[in-house]
Amino acid sequence: PVAPPPLFSALAREASAGAPRAVWFPLPAGSCAAFPSPPVNMAAASGRCRLIWAAAAALVLTLDAAFVEDLDDSFKDNRKDDVWLVDFYAPWCGHCKKLEPVWNEVGIEIRSSGSPVKVGKMDATSYSSIASEFGVRGYPTIKLLKGDLAYNYRGPRTKDDIIEFANRVAGPLIRPLPSQQMFEHVHKRHRVLFLYVGGESPLKEKYIEVASELIVYTYFFSASEEVLPEYVTLPELPAVVVFKDGTYFVYDEYEDGDLSSWINRERFQGYLNVDGFTLYELGDTGKLVAIAIIDDKNSSAEHTRLKSVIQDVAKDYRDHFHRNFQFGHMDGNDYINSLLMDDLTIPTVVVLNTSNQQYFLPDRRIESTEDLVQFINNILDGTVEAQGGDGFLQRIKRIIYDAKSTVVSVFKSSPLLGCFLFGLPLGVISIMCYGICTADTNGGVEENETSKKEIGDRELTDEGSEEEQEQENKEKPAELSDGEHGQKHIFDKKKD
User: What sequence ranges are listed for the domain Thioredoxin (predicted)?
Assistant: First the structure.
């Protein structure tokens, strides 16, 4: 199939959005024969017009299906010659249904751009063996399949982010920059830019190996020393350089350790606007995350000052803290409250350890960069006590907190629904408990009556006949008195 003209791509985007549109089709030159001027036969012209419109409508309705292929079990054997971007979904999954219109737009955009990437989707519940082979554990799962490699997408589920991921991973691992003009162009487009400088070397082999692993997160480039701007000074060649935050930093094996760990730490800017997804991504870096919790809409001096303080520390103390800390700010405290299971008063500063869910809070207000630096140094030397964590008690607390939050949110959004969801089960449980208690009471009464009856029967049986009693009295005269006393004692008990 050939990529459609831009007009039909636009129509497909409108169709995937579900909005009806009235569209004017400008016919190309030379097509006026379909509409004779002056019209000789208006009925014939009208019929041909209807045919054209019907064909155009059919094309628009089938564009989505043409750009996103439904995959089956034959996909496993036929995929290796192409690059595939696949959405593994479940029909009942709400997140999958939300992704579907975005996925249709991704298919349209990639096909119309001439990209070699093919876009498909697979029902992972119907073809569970294939999904398991590709390591699908949840829904939806987006993977780019390139030869024998499968790359997981973990970014935001937006059209632009997914397409950018597909184009990055489908292309070459290392993109060469042949000129200084090309370097400047790429440098403007990327906030964080990794560059290998030099010829063939063991460092380049390691760089390629790391790129094959981390291409899902960022681009990797290579260039000769002549391509670099004059302000860049390298101590030796070959070298790996990262350009970010308006400057550059050179990888040092002795100080920075493993190249993969260094690139994973440096792939973020020094200061970030942190949200839930970014915080999740920062967990892979192994860094503590120092966040100013503020209200972006609040322009008061206190909020602005705290944001400036953490920005200054991120910039001016990079050499001291960049290996252990990531800095940023977060708008609002709703997300951080759910994470910490506590209500934080903003503005404030919190330091998170995303690897074990511990956090650190200052014991006094942060008024200046000196206060923040002192607080961070105290964390490093262990004088600040860590709170939270992922221990057993914290997990129990998390379960209770999540259950409470769920109940409160349901009642806030829909009180009637909350009463139905939680009141009905409680009512059923109460009725069951009442029935159980009632059944036990009646059973106990019946059991007492049965026991009494059995005791009476035994007493009647044990009494025997008069002759047997006289015989026993003759044989055991000494015990006769005791028996009489015993019977009298039993009789007195019954009487009482």
Answer: 49-171
Contacts of 128-133 with C-beta under 8 Å, sequence gap 24+, read 130/73, 130/75, 130/76, 131/88, 133/76
**Do the beta carbons of residue 91 and residue 123 sit within 8 Å?**
yes
Output the CA–CA distances (angstroms, integers) from residue 160 to 102, 206, 213, 484, in the order listed: 10, 30, 22, 103
Q: Which of 49, 96, 419, 437 is catalytic?
A: 96
Q: Which two tokens stand for residue 291?
A: 């966040």
What is the spatial distance between Cα 344 and Cα 330, in angstroms, rounded to a whole number? Answer: 13
- Amino acid found at 117: V
Sequence-separated (6 or more) residues with CB below 8 Å from residue 217: 264, 267
Identified catalytic residue from 32, 49, 93, 437:
93
Determine phi and psi for 248, rounding to 5 degrees. Answer: -145, 155
**Residue 253, token pair as written in the block:** 């094996």
Q: How many residues does the chain have?
A: 496
CA separation for the pair 300, 312 (Å, rounded):
19
Per the annotation, the verdict on 419 as an active-site residue is: no
Q: Are 165 and 117 in contact (CB under 8 A)?
A: no
Candidates 122, 102, 121; CA nearest to 13 is: 102
DSSP state of 245: T
- Where are the extended beta strands (E) located within 274-344? 288-294, 325-331
- Cβ atoms of 329 and 310 within 8 Å: the answer is yes
At position 181, the amino acid (one-letter code) is: Q
Q: How is the beta sheet containing 247-250 ordered, strand by strand?
A: 175-176, 220-223, 193-197, 239-244, 247-250
Residue numbers of the chain with a pLDDT score lower than 50:
1-40, 42-43, 45, 57-58, 60-62, 64, 445, 459-466, 468, 472, 474-480, 482-483, 485, 491
Q: What CA–CA distance (Å, rounded) separates 238 from 304? A: 43
Active-site residue flag, 437: no
Give φ, ψ of 54 to 5 degrees: -65, -40
pTM recorded for the entire structure = 0.64
d(CA 338, CA 266): 28
Pairing of strands 239-244, 193-197: antiparallel
Q: How many helices (H) and strands (E) does the chain have?
A: 20, 16
